[in-house]
Write a structure and sequence with these properties.
The protein starts with a helix and ends in a 26-residue tail after the last helix. It has about 70 residues and is mainly α. It has two helices and no strands. The protein has one domain.
């Protein structure tokens, strides 16, 4: 793997880590799975990125569902 690709992966991991730290820090502000999905999409855009796949947010009984789409 060349250094450019490796640096891109490192940057993507850092951005993802920062977004998830913000989710955990402010977790009580989220009322639904869709709230978390919206937050992830907003933060991703603020970082000048686009997601490689839709966010999978699944809580409670939804956690057992494969590729669950966020709900209210």
């Amino acid at each position: 793997m060349n250094s450019y690709k490796l640096n891109c992966i490192i940057k993507a991991c850092s951005i993802t880590d920062n977004i998830f730290k913000q989710i955990i820090k402010n977790f009580k502000q989220f009322k639904t799975e869709k709230d978390i999905e919206k937050f992830i999409k907003q933060k991703t855009k603020q970082y000048g990125c686009r997601p490689s796949f839709f966010p999978v947010i699944a809580t409670a009984s939804n956690a057992a569902e494969i590729h669950h789409k966020p709900t209210n």
